Amino acid sequence: MNKSELIDAISAKVPDVSKRAIGDCIAAFTETVSNILKKGDVVMLVGFGSFKTSKRAARTGRNPQTGAELKIAASVVPKFSPGQRLKDAVNKPKPKKK
């Protein structure tokens, strides 16, 4: 699902809100989460999950074409940990069709 499909799906559940407003909300959400993670803080949405950052150490990798070693710099990467309600919703068995 891409962003426009997400906007359409949300719009179907909230028909009184314009698609433009939904798109603006999604953009504001992603920008806000990005800025919070950039500061090193955590975003926790109880039941849904939490967004946080993790440090990845510098390491040595290989170029798959040449086999030459190369150094990969240390970095900070975003991570998402799903909450229990999200896990339950994803693992809920689908009803059988008759």
Question: What would you say this structure looks like, in words?
Answer:
- With 98 residues, the chain is α+β, with helices and mostly antiparallel strands.
- The protein folds into two domains: 1-41; 42-92, HU Protein, Chain A, CATH 4.10.520.10.
- Helices cover 40% and strands 28% of the residues.
- It contains three helices and five strands; from the N terminus they run ααβββββα.
- The strands form two sheets. A three-stranded antiparallel sheet has the order 1-2-5. Strands 3-4 form a two-stranded antiparallel ribbon.
- Strand 3 (59-62) and strand 4 form a beta hairpin.
- Helix 1 (3-13) crosses helix 2 (19-38).
- It is extended.
- The mean pLDDT is 94.
- InterPro entries: Hist_DNA-bd, Histone-like_DNA-bd_CS, IHF-like_DNA-bd_dom_sf.
- Keywords: DNA condensation, DNA-binding.
- This is DNA-binding protein HU-beta.
